[in-house]
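Need residues for this backbone.
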């Protein structure tokens, strides 16, 4: 039993330690999210299985709070509404359970300089394989609508890697270890976002 525990800890520690090599990528993803939120964009997050729980976790950190009390931030989890998901799966197929919601929630503004339609929203997907059909159909739809697409992925990134504007790939074979790494990345992003909000609030006071 102790050997199983040690193995689990070793796998998680190895993945997390390797994240030190991609801190620039984490910072870039956080900056993109901040840029979109600063102009009124909404963050949509989704995943399957354990990754869906992480997507929900991330959204509650934004709409509620991560550590500090501050204004609520706009985030929608696309895998937390069972009625919506089962309706879409029944009527359109499981591969569309997220893409239909992206279509429903995406918001648009008009660029007065050239009358172009702009979407400031973000789709963040979590996948340990990058090959989930419902994730990739959602990414394709998000790209067509003009959302910024971000992937926290595993193994070699799968098909999702080519569909994301920004991605962070944890090259490990164990799904649990990949998810351990993804959770640390999500919390690091939350740290950066809350530091940004605190700075904005301090500037307003001054």
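Answer:
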């Amino acid at each position: 039993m102790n050997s199983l525990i040690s193995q689990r800890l070793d796998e998680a520690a190895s993945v997390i330690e390797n994240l030190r090599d991609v801190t620039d990528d984490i910072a870039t993803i956080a900056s993109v999210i901040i840029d979109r939120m600063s102009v009124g964009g909404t963050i949509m997050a989704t995943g399957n299985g354990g990754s869906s729980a992480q997507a929900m976790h991330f959204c509650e950190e934004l709409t509620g709070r991560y550590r500090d009390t501050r204004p609520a931030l706009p985030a929608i989890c696309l895998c937390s509404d069972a009625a919506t998901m089962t309706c879409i799966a029944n009527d359109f197929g499981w591969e569309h359970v997220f893409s239909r919601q992206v279509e429903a929630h995406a918001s648009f503004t008009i660029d007065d300089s050239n009358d172009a339609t702009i979407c400031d929203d973000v789709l963040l997907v979590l996948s340990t394989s990058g090959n989930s059909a419902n994730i990739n159909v959602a990414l394709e739809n998000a790209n067509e609508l003009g959302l910024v697409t971000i992937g926290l992925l595993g193994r070699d990134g799968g098909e999702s890697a080519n569909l994301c504007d920004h991605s962070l790939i944890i090259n490990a074979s164990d799904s649990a270890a990949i998810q351990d790494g993804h959770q640390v990345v999500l919390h690091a992003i939350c740290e950066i976002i809350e530091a940004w909000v605190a700075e904005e609030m301090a500037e307003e006071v001054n």
